[in-house]
């Protein structure tokens, strides 16, 4: 897939208003968030500009307004982009082991997934990044941001002690402008899988039965032995999202969250108001970014951004567009 280049950034097309695969999946009772390519009818109301789509007729390159950096006062955006991304494949995903809060790194495939994800979001503005405290999510965020067109430097914020905070200070305003704070939070960690951590998923199903393991993995309120249920995971992850991340979006900051299959399932359940029944079939693929637009206190799901040269649709509202260079 080509690197991120501006000519792919935005091409205005007649919004193709296919129903989002997510909603059709919901009808089919199969809520699967893999790569939703939709530019729904509300796009027109929101003034969305949809990116290139192989099936849509390209009308003309969108006129990108001058960027804030070009001297114009950056107008505080009334909308903000929220990108959610599950970490790339980890070494224990590859071995099909329950991972939970065990801190394992990415595989080479997971590294590539993070890089490809970065190309898909390379034109979407990011002002602050949140990750869990686990290395697989942090690696994913850093690798993805290496592909970003703005080339700002993601810097992990250290506040674990006064000394850590003091010793990691940056003393140049210009340098700060060229960096993006990365905030790590244990509340965004993967659900703690209790006594399943380190066990092989297939062997566990053979031992306890497929249905029991599916119930532990995907139900809302049934925890694995001495582990967290999705509900318990949501109590920390969604609370953190509401208390720490939503205020950033309200202030117009564009946010990326790099986290885990279940901590993100709990957040998406909140954003999309999924029932405890619907969330059972919500699965997140590794390394697939998902875009929401936060506007007037509401979250508009925009699906998975297409890569710079990939068929598919991603959409910006006009004011998010203004952030673009
Ligand atoms: O923690 C793990 O094992 C994986 O990251 C997610 O596991 P799951 O797909 O069984 O929820």
Automatic annotation (TrEMBL):
GO terms (molecular function) for this protein are:
phosphoglycerate mutase activity
Supply one GO BP term. glycolytic process
SMART domains for the chain: PGAM
Which enzyme type, at the first EC level?
A: isomerase
Q: Where is this site: Transition state stabilizer?
A: 260
One matching Pfam family is: His_Phos_1
UniProtKB keywords: Glycolysis, Isomerase
Give its E.C. classification number.
5.4.2.11
Q: Does the keyword Zinc-finger apply?
A: no
Q: Where is the active site?
A: 87 (tele-phosphohistidine intermediate), 190 (proton donor/acceptor)
Similarity remark? Belongs to the phosphoglycerate mutase family. BPG-dependent PGAM subfamily.
Give the matching PANTHER family: PHOSPHOGLYCERATE MUTASE
**What is the protein name for this chain?**
phosphoglycerate mutase (2,3-diphosphoglycerate-dependent)
């Amino acid at each position: 897939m080509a690197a991120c280049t501006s000519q792919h950034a935005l091409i205005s097309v007649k919004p193709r208003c296919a129903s989002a695969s997510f909603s059709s999946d919901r009808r089919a009772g199969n809520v699967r968030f893999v790569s939703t390519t939709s530019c729904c009818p509300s796009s027109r109301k929101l003034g969305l500009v949809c990116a290139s789509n192989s099936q849509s007729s390209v009308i003309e390159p969108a006129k990108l307004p001058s960027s804030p950096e070009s001297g114009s006062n950056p107008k505080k955006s009334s909308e903000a982009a929220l990108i959610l991304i599950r970490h790339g494949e980890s070494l224990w995903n590859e071995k099909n082991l329950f991972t939970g809060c065990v801190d394992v790194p990415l595989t080479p495939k997971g590294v590539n997934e993070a890089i490809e994800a970065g190309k898909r979001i390379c034109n979407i503005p990011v002002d602050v990044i949140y990750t869990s405290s686990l290395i697989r999510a942090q690696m994913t965020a850093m690798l993805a941001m290496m592909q970003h067109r703005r080339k700002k430097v993601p810097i992990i914020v250290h506040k674990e002690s006064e000394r850590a905070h003091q010793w990691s200070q940056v003393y140049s305003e210009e340098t700060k402008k060229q960096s993006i704070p990365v905030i790590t939070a244990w509340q965004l960690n993967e659900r703690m899988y209790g006594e399943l951590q380190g066990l092989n998923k297939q062997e566990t199903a053979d031992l306890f039965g497929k249905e029991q393991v599916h119930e532990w993995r995907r139900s809302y309120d049934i925890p694995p032995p001495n582990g967290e249920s999705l509900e318990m995971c949501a109590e920390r992850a969604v609370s953190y999202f509401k208390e720490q991340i939503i205020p950033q979006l309200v202030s117009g900051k564009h946010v990326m969250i790099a986290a885990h299959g279940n901590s993100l399932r709990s957040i998406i359940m909140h954003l999309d108001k999924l029932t405890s029944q619907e969330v059972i079939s919500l699965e997140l693929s590794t390394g697939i970014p998902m875009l929401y637009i936060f506007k007037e206190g509401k979250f508009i799901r925009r699906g998975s951004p297409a890569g710079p040269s990939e068929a598919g649709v991603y959409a910006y509202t006009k004011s998010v567009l203004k952030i673009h260079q």
